[in-house]
Prior knowledge:
By secondary structure, this protein is an alpha/beta fold. The chain has 15 helices and 16 strands. It has a five-stranded parallel β-sheet with strand order 2-1-3-4-5, with helices on both faces. The protein has a five-stranded parallel β-sheet with strand order 7-10-13-6-14. Strands 8-9 form a two-stranded antiparallel sheet. α13 (311-326) crosses α15. The longest helix has 17 residues, at 102-118.
Amino acid sequence: MKIAIVEDDINMRKSLEIAMGDYEKYDVYTFKNARDALKKLDDTFDLIISDINMPGMDGIEFVKTLGGKYEVIIITGNATLTRAIESIQLGVKDFLLKPFEIETLIAAIERTAAVAQKTPKGAVAKPQSGECFLGTSPALEKLLERISKAAATDASIMLLGESGVGKEVLARHIHDSSPRASKGFVAINMAAIPDNLIESELFGFEKGAFTDAGEAKAGQFELAEGGTLFLDEIGEMPYPLQAKLLRVLQEREIRRLGAAKNTKIDVRIITATNADLTRKISDGEFREDLYYRLNTIPLLIPPLRERREEILMIAEAALERYCMQYGFASKTFSTEAKAALENYNWPGNIRELISVVERSAILSDGDVIGVEDLFLEARGLGRV
Length: 384
């Protein structure tokens, strides 16, 4: 197993390198900061062990930049519940508080390796939600054929579809299938960030650019350098900022807030929306020129009700994952439960399916999940 240790404390870094040197099955490489690691990480690495509090790019930003490409274990001497939750939501497999015995770290590595080996092959997973694309239905297979062609280029892609169909998962799949796969995948949701913070989040800022700017911070464009930036809910981007995004796409350079000069960037852009952008253009809420720049290759993701062949595959893969995550014995769906899953209309698409599976895994008794454990009768709006 090839492991990267990212730790700014030289004593800790050397101690881990020496201690893990006693284990022949681990091929260990160390880095003093996240940026140095990003320059060297490639597809041959299996696991990243990273500190959180590091100068420049901290561990949380580092994990975001990795985009779920590697298994990650966080080690820190200043743990807070908020940071722990944030890291787990990003897909981090373990969170260790310093100081710890080397045996504790080895046990965490072995647990992570065991889960990685059991992850269903062929699934493209979003770490924090367990969503996956298994691509067995004719509708999705046709889409994936188009994606294989588009992924090989740097053309801008716009993903369209209902909420919950897995647009970010598919964006990650495009990135992983592209020549940029060895670089970072960075995702940002326009609807989740206050309007007055989006510009600094995208483009970064210099120290002193505004009252709370105590130190410089790279924006999402810089964090995605060489890789892919996924802009979800692009229809929610404030109109004044759309002109700046258009300029970035045209000039291929950004300027941090408070900076005196521009910085060249090399980033592939993928956007997604479930909004009617043509209506927004007519209403003066979205720039037509930006729309055409982003919509070079539009890809419509079919809803789950049009991909019923995939429902059980996704549900069973998610069930296996949740049983491992929560330490449960293996569980299966009863024949009646399988029929109920296949016949339900899934208005919330994959996101709703994953939620139902997780809840049933937790609340069901025994190793067989019955139809009553799905609680689908409480969701009458989804009946076929």
